[in-house]
């Protein structure tokens, strides 16, 4: 998985064990320390592209029995919170599916909205369940979706960049007019910046999500990605010979957590414990070139998370070793719907989406479990199939990506 990383060398090099560097306010160090991540690129064989499937439109006036989620009509919406009050009026403005009058929270809109906004399936166009899972996770992040709904529609079919294509996809998914959508355009444009996705072989949902976010930010340096997803970290490498400390500041869009392999005495592990383990200082593998000693020595490394904390915390549970064994670490990670003090002493994060993987690295299938803000209900998104699920099924040993939203202390729930 490839994380967007910006490296910033500190202006003052630390040469003493107890020396500290004055850090700008944006990089106020907070406990705990975090162990550096490791990313290993994997090789993917690029094959000839098959013929793409033709688009199929779904009439909003015709009931399709194939989808078991259509009975969830928008008329059941009641008691909208502040975020929902932002989303519904915008759907009215963007897609012209409601009247120009102010929408009442008790108004029956089933005639103009045959499908619930956001409950829109994505067609699998050939081993693209990984992409569909990533897109459904992002679609159910309220602030990101609100930004997409606020974007103007382009009348021209030419010279559309990734921002236009992604926001158009989200607008269709939240219009309430579609049961399913063909996401071919978003796959094609992400493949331009990340050629690994050009073929139709099974890929990684987190890798696609990260590539999409990076491409969105590169296109227009849009602040929405920075404001929501950026995680600021500080990596410290300490020479064990002279105690010289080398500091590197980094920016990433996800927090990767290594998993222990399941044993007879360790059938599950808490998410908090994974982060605590991630915080420990570890010995570097191999030799490190010390700029103070001017020689290769042994060294230790750790990473600290810095302020500000991300509004959207994307956690990757590293279940794949990529060691040519195609083995998957299926250790059960016990995570909560709401975590307090997860990565600092005063944060509150609430779960909004989970990308799940069933099977092995060589052959598997991705789905998404996410809460729809308008319906206040959890659903399973399985390509073009969507079904309501009980909260008991959200915490699963198949969890691969966890998407958490940062809450203010005055808020206790997003549902």
From TrEMBL:
It catalyses: Thiol-dependent hydrolysis of ester, thioester, amide, peptide and isopeptide bonds formed by the C-terminal Gly of ubiquitin (a 76-residue protein attached to proteins as an intracellular targeting signal). It holds the Pfam family UCH. GO terms for biological process: protein deubiquitination; proteolysis. GO terms for molecular function: cysteine-type deubiquitinase activity. Gene3D superfamilies: Cysteine proteinases. It comes from the Eukaryota. Keywords: Hydrolase, Protease, Thiol protease, Ubl conjugation pathway. Its EC number is 3.4.19.12. It is an enzyme of class 3 (hydrolase). Transmembrane segments: none annotated. Residues 120-407 form the USP domain. Belongs to the peptidase C19 family. This is Ubiquitin carboxyl-terminal hydrolase. It comes from Rotaria sordida.
């Amino acid at each position: 998985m490839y994380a967007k990383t910006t490296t910033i060398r500190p202006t003052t090099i630390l040469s003493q064990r107890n020396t500290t560097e004055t850090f700008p306010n944006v990089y106020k160090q907070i406990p705990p320390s975090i162990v550096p991540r490791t990313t290993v690129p994997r090789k993917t064989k690029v094959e000839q592209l098959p013929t793409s499937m033709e688009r199929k439109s779904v009439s909003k006036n015709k009931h399709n029995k194939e989808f078991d989620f259509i009975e969830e009509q928008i008329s059941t919406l009641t008691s909208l919170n502040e975020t929902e009050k932002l989303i519904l009026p915008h759907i009215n403005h963007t897609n012209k599916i409601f009247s120009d009058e102010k929408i009442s929270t008790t108004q029956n809109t089933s005639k103009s909205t045959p499908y619930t906004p956001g409950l829109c399936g994505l067609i699998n166009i050939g081993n693209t369940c990984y992409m569909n899972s990533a897109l459904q996770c992002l679609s159910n992040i309220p602030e990101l979706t609100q930004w997409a709904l606020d974007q103007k529609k382009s009348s021209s079919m030419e010279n559309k960049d990734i921002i236009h294509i992604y926001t158009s996809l989200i607008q269709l998914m939240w219009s309430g007019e579609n049961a399913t959508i063909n996401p071919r355009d978003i796959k094609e444009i992400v493949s331009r910046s990340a050629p690994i996705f050009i073929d139709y072989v099974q890929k990684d949902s987190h890798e696609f999500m990260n590539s999409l976010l990076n491409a969105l930010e590169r296109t227009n340096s849009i602040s929405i990605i920075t404001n929501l997803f950026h995680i600021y970290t500080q990596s410290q490498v300490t020479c064990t010979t002279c105690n010289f400390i080398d500091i590197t500041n980094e920016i990433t869009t996800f927090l990767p957590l290594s998993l222990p392999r399941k044993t007879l005495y360790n059938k599950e592990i808490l998410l908090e414990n994974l982060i605590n383990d991630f915080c420990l200082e570890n010995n570097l593998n191999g030799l490190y070139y010390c700029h103070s000693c001017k020689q290769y020595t042994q060294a230790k490394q750790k990473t600290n998370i810095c302020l500000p904390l991300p509004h959207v915390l994307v956690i990757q549970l590293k279940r794949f070793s990529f060691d040519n064994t195609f083995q998957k670490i299926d250790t059960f990670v016990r995570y909560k719907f709401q975590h307090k003090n997860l990565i600092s002493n005063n944060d509150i994060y609430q779960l909004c989406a989970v990308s799940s993987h069933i099977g092995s690295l060589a052959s598997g299938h991705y789905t998404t479990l996410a809460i729809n803000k308008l319906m206040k209900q959890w659903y399973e998104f399985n390509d073009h199939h969507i079904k309501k699920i009980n909260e008991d099924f959200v915490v699963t040993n198949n969890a691969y990506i966890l998407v958490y939203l940062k809450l203010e202390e005055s808020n206790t729930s997003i549902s």
